[in-house]
Amino acid sequence: MASWRRCSSCRNEIGFEQIYWECSVSTCARVAKTGLFFCSVSCWEAHLPTMRHREAWAVEKRAPNEATWLDEERAAEGGAGATSTRPAAPLRSAEPPSRSEAAPSRLVVAADLDDGAGGDDILIVVSKLKKYIRARSGMNTSDGVMSVLSDHLRKICDRAIRHAADDGRKTVLDRDFKAIL
């Protein structure tokens, strides 16, 4: 097999283990329905006028290697009518989980994020922070500030995630941040 997918805009091939871009909007990133994949940021930008997103950005990703992808395809075909290449969600009982049951499962997901999903990423817009500090004080801002501030922001987000999970919710709200600050 020569390629993993085709670009949703220009139809060029996206090879295995090659960098590609997805839209940050969840409806564009769903593999089962839309499944939009772009070979470049300019191809991603080409879909914006038709989708009319309020706020979106291109998310850089790396295509899986061929062996991993074939394993996922076989697993999807083996499932009962599975149409997605993503793993199926675990089955839930008809009865809603109690708060004590809901919180640990969500905290496990939060703990998984600490292991590899953006632990070193800068979570703020550097230019806007520097502009704000300069406007307020006339001072410059060191680049070292960004990683320290991002680490602090991760800790705050983790606390807000725990607060939402303790309330039995799957959505982190503004009140979760207000409760911990």
The helix content is 40-55%
**Tally of strands:** 4
Structurally, the number of domains stands at 2
Shape: extended
Give me the strand/helix succession.
EEEHHEHHHHH
Largest sheet data: 2 strands, antiparallel
Instruction: Specify the number of helices.
Output: 7
Report the structural category.
mainly alpha
Q: Which architecture of the largest domain per CATH?
A: Orthogonal Bundle
Strand arrangement across the biggest beta sheet: 1-2
The overall average pLDDT, rounded, is 78
Low-confidence stretches: 80-116
CATH third-level topology of the largest domain: Histone, subunit A
CA radius of gyration: 20 Å
Work out the strand percent.
5-15%
Distance between the termini: 52 Å
Describe the structure.
By secondary structure, the protein is mainly α. 49% of the residues lie in helices and 8% in strands. It contains seven helices and four strands, in the order βββααβααααα. The strands form two sheets. The chain has a two-stranded antiparallel ribbon with strand order 1-2. A two-stranded antiparallel sheet has the order 3-4. Strand 1 (5-6) and strand 2 form a beta hairpin. The longest helix has 23 residues, at 144-166. The chain is extended. Mean pLDDT is 78; it is low at 80-116.
Any descriptors?
181 residues, mainly alpha, 2 domains, two-stranded antiparallel ribbon, two-stranded antiparallel sheet, 8% strand, extended
